[in-house]
Amino acid sequence: MNSIIKESLERSFSYEEYRNLLTNLLKVGKTTGNDQSEAMIHYAELNEARLHRLDKTMQVTDEVQLKLEQLTKEYLWLVITEGWCGDAAQILPIINKMALVSDKVELRIILRDDNEEVMNMFLTNGTKSIPKLIIIDKESGEVINHFGPRPQEAKQLILDYKAEHGVVDETAKIELQKWYLHDKGVSTQNEIMELM
Fold first, then answer.
1. Burial (Cβ within 10 Å: 0-12, 13-18, ≥19) of residue 70
2. CA geometry: angle at 113 spanning 108 and 96, to 5°?
3. Which residues contact 68 (CB under 8 A, 6 or more apart)?
4. Is residue 51 scored above 90 in pLDDT?
């Protein structure tokens, strides 16, 4: 296993630990990450509500559940995230539910700003876009693939909006959240399974 990834795993969280961390930080008016601005704390508060709702309502599709139950190798799913990230609030609960389905998948979570070296290994078009799921073969320690920061259709939605309006503004973010609501995590599940 790459030494940088191995070191980051020592600082990683389970999903439950990550959720507790975010909840406890928000109680004292903070969020994860280096930027503790009012805007980032506001986004983290919105995401806390999203995470809470999706933890209750998100379902793994029957097709994906069957594929996960039939895995023969063991995998480590390492997610890079931050509490203020809107995409992460939509995707992390899906990844968690998928990991819970299979005893062959272990989910660990690291914070982007605390693990810059790992983040720099998985840039998206030169940017530190999150969430990023790194799929690792547990036996060999090799990185098999990675997913993120969002499903293809959602990526295209943002690219099209930016091409038309020149920016990704609040309207774009609202359209993206509507897309996630309508998709119900199906695209994320299918795309992750295609990478396995």
1. exposed
2. 25
3. 60, 98, 101, 102, 104, 105, 193
4. yes
Residue 100, token pair as written in the block? 């819970």
Surface-to-core class of residue 49, CB atoms within 10 Å of its CB (0-12 exposed, 13-18 middle, 19+ buried): exposed
> What tens digit of pLDDT does each residue of 68-92 get?
999 999 999 999 999 999 999 999 9
- How large is the greatest C-alpha to C-alpha distance in the chain, in angstroms? 47
What token pair was written down for 38? 């009012």
Buried b (16+ CB within 10 A) or exposed e, 73-83: eebbbbbbbbb
Read off the pTM: 0.95
Q: Per-residue pLDDT averaged across 99-111, rounded?
A: 97
